[in-house]
Predict the 3D structure of the following.
Amino acid sequence: EIVLTQSPGTLSLSPGGSATLSCRASQTISSSYLAWYQQKPGQAPRLLIYGASIRATGIPDRFNGSGSGTDFTLTINRLEPEDFAVYYCQQYGSSPLTFGQGTKVEFK
Amino acid sequence: EVQLLESGGGLVQPGGSLRLSCAASGFSFKSYAMSWVRQAPGKGLEWVSAVSGSGGSTHYADSVKGRFTISRDSSKNTLYLQMNSLRAEDTAVYYCAKANKWELVGGYYFDYWGQGTLVTVSS
C-alpha cells in the first residue's frame, strides 16, 4: 500500500497570499496518477486536480498541481476567502487507493 | 447536473447491519464505476469499496473485506453498500463517489461526491 504524507499539517495564511502544499508518497506513483481534493467543513470533498497537474472542470487557474514520482505539490496563488479549507491528495496508480492525511489552510 | 444522494445511515449496535443507498442522477450511471469513501469524525478520507460500471468487478479495502458488500442496480441508478458485523471503528460519514471511468483496472479518481450519510456504531 502506498502511504501518502502531506505537509505541513496546517498552513496559516492571509487572503492574497500563496500556499504550497506537499504530498510525498512512500513509493513511486505510476503515470502521475495523483489527485487533489478540497473539503470545507460539513461539505463533501471537491476534485481540484487529477493526473498531478490537470485542473478539473471549473477549477480556477490559481490552483496548480505539479510533481512526479514520489513528490507532488499543490500551489494556490492569490488566496481567496473561499480557499480556506482542508486539502487531500489521493493516489490512484496502485491498489488500494489511498489518501493523504490532509493539510488545513487556515486564516492567519 | 450530477447529483448523488446517500441514505440509510443511522445508529446501530456493534455486530449489527446496515444498508446504505446512493441515488444517482445527471449522468449515464451504467457508464461509470462507483465507490464508497468514508471519513471518521475529525479524521481524513478512507477509500472503502468500488464497483465497475457493469457491476461485475468489485474492490474492497482490507478493513472491510468479508463484512461489506458493494452492489449497483442500473435500472434504478442506485449504488448500495451492505454493511455487516459492524464495529465501533466503522463509525464515519460515508460518501458515495463517482469514478472517472467505467472500469476499475488502471486506477480512478473521484469527480463527483455526494453529501454523505452518517453511520454510528455504538451500544
Remarks:
- The interface with chain A takes residues 37, 44-47, 50, 59, 61-62, 95, 100, 107-116 of chain B (CB under 8 Å).
